[in-house]
Specification:
Elements lengths: L1 E4 L9 E2 L2 E2 L3 E4 L2 E4 L4 E5 L15 H12 L1 E4 L3 E3 L4 E7 L5 E9 L7 E9 L4 E8 L6 E10 L6 E10 L5 E7 L5 E9 L3 E8 L4 E8 L6 E10 L4 E5 L3 E3 L4 E7 L5 E10 L4 E8 L5 E8 L5 E10 L1
């Protein structure tokens, strides 16, 4: 069963003292939000525009600061045993904010790592992933990557909370946009260990595209969608060459951003939608390339290509 949720825009959430009014509770090894259904969080901890200078030079100065502070941070390796689920985190350094991120691992077998969630962490300024090692024999080592930079005009999060993924091995599709007047820079989704992430990539309509699969037969589960948003940023959507997968097969593909640009975020577009399960999706250490590994989970052939937001 598949249900599609069309694109929605976030509404602002009032902040007091630089903190979000939304309460948070914790689930599994990562955070789930349990508040209003839709919202936006403006992060005030980092100066988003350089101080001083003529107004006409603000955009150029912000771009130069972003390039100067851009970096890909790799978190500590996490070892997950056979049949176990776990999480990992990469934190952005002071003076930067999280843009995008992902996860890479060491197991490339018919079984192995399956990605449960991959999302920006609102509270700890980094990227958080969770995953399950479906191997019955081998440990897997997983690393989470965060793309970080400063000088992002209008930087904010938007989120769509507590989206039900019904029991009975149901797929649910989402196309989620940033608030009006902002552009989507990255996106992701949170959730508990019974979920699997099938699609997570930049869309063509200022949205982030996500497909989440509930593997449980008897338990309803929930996911929270996140977008990273900004203003005054010129970013391009780049689309790579496709690769084909046979039933039960595995494949990977990469996309390199144009010369002079860096990757903000990326992911794999599957055809049919939700036909492949993500095992790895991550930026290169130099910020030029995005790579995705997937495995086919339908009774037919499938196809995948990498999509990425790139910016100077």
């Amino acid at each position: 069963m598949v249900e599609t949720v069309q694109a929605r825009q976030a509404r602002p959430v009032t902040l007091k003292g630089g903190r979000s009014l939304m309460p948070a509770r914790y689930a599994s090894s990562h955070r789930l939000l349990r508040a209003s259904a839709v919202g936006a969080l403006t992060v005030a901890a980092v100066s988003l525009l350089p101080a001083g200078g003529p107004p006409g030079n603000a955009a150029t100065a912000a771009r130069l600061r972003t390039l100067a502070t851009y970096q890909v941070v790799t978190g500590d390796p996490v070892t997950v045993g056979p049949g176990k689920g776990q999480g990992a985190f990469a934190k952005c350094p002071a003076g930067t904010v999280v843009l995008g991120g992902g996860e890479s691992n060491t197991v490339l077998l018919p079984t192995g790592i399956e990605l449960v969630s991959s999302n920006p962490d609102i509270y700890d300024n980094g990227w958080r992933t969770s995953f399950v090692n479906t191997s019955t024999l081998l440990n897997a080592t997983v690393r989470t990557q965060a793309i970080c930079a400063g000088g992002i005009p209008g930087y904010r999060f938007s989120y769509l909370q507590d989206q039900l993924i019904p029991r009975g091995r149901v797929r649910r599709e989402f196309n989620y946009t940033c608030p009006a007047g902002t552009v989507t820079l990255a996106g992701g989704s949170d959730g508990t260990q019974g979920l699997r992430l099938l699609d997570s990539y930049p869309g063509a309509s200022n949205d982030w595209v996500t497909t989440v699969f509930n593997t449980a037969l008897n338990s309803d589960l929930h996911t929270t969608l996140f977008n990273v948003c900004g203003t005054g940023i010129t970013r391009s959507l780049e689309v790579g060459e496709g690769v084909s997968l046979s039933k039960g097969g595995r494949a990977h593909a990469s996309l390199t951003c144009p010369a002079g640009t860096k990757v903000l975020s990326g992911g794999g577009e599957n055809t049919p939608r939700g036909s492949n399960m993500i095992t790895d999706t991550f930026p290169s250490s130099d910020g030029r390339t995005w790579t995705v590994y997937v495995k086919n989970v339908i009774d037919d052939n499938s196809w995948m290509r990498v999509r990425a937001f790139c910016a100077a």
